[in-house]
Design goal:
Length: 72
Amino acid sequence: MVRDDLFDRTSWMSTGGARIEVRQGILTLSGRMECRTEAEIAVRMTRRMNGVVDVVNELAWRQADAPALGGA
């Protein structure tokens, strides 16, 4: 359900290599995405979901397409 809410609704983002684990409101994002910006956007979107207590970002990316965004 979380994957549907976050990744499947963002059809412009390639998320096939990303995984989500949920435990007591803490979401861990892991795996690999295509671009750094997509990984950072995924983390920000996850933090804004109802019921999310915290997000652990373990995402890697293939292409560093931009400098890191602050706070991601």
